[in-house]
Design goal:
Strand content: 5-15%
Number of helices: 10
Distance between the termini: 80 Å
Helix content: 40-55%
Order of helices and strands: EEHHHHHHHHHHEEE
Protein name: F-box protein PP2-B2
Shape: elongated
Amino acid sequence: MVPIWVQNPESKNPNFFGLNPDPDPDEKIRIKTKIQKKKIASGCGTRKALGETSKMDITDTLPAECMSHVISLTTPRDACRLSVACRVFKSAADSDSVWEKFLPSDYKEIISSSVSDSSLITSFSSKKDLYFHLCHNPIIINGGTLRLVLEKESGKKCYIPVGVVHRFIPWGDIPEDWI
C-alpha cells in the first residue's frame, strides 16, 4: 500500500496524512532562544548560538554519561583531543569511567603484585593521571624480571625484560662469525 500525498490546507508544506508539522511560529522562537542560551552556558555550539546554523548539536541531545561511554569506545588519544573541544566534552573525556576502560582490565592485580610501589592505585586523584603515569614510568613486575609500561596511544601493555638494556655479543662485529 502506497501512502497518499495530501496537501494540508493550513500549511504550505505538503506532508503525509494532512498533518501540520510546523509548530506555532512564536513557539519556534521561544524554543530557539532557550536552546541558544543553553549552548552559550555550556560552552559548546557557540557558533550556532551566535547565529550560524548547523544540523544538530550532540551536546544538547546526549547526557554526559552517554558521551563518556561513547568516548570510552575510542582511543586515549581521541579522548584527549575531544577534551579540548569544549567544556562538555572535557568533563566527559576526563571522567574516571572513560579512563578505566583505557587501563588494562587487570591493572589492579598488576600494580598490587609489582615490586614497585603498590600504592599507585590510591596515590593518583584520577584514572587519567594513573594511565599517564603508567605510560611514562614502567613498573617492575614478575619478581623483578619484567618492566611493564603502557603504550601511550592505545593503552596496550608492553613487557620489557629488566636485564635487556644492553646486550654484548662477543665477535658480533665480525661478519664471518655470523654464520
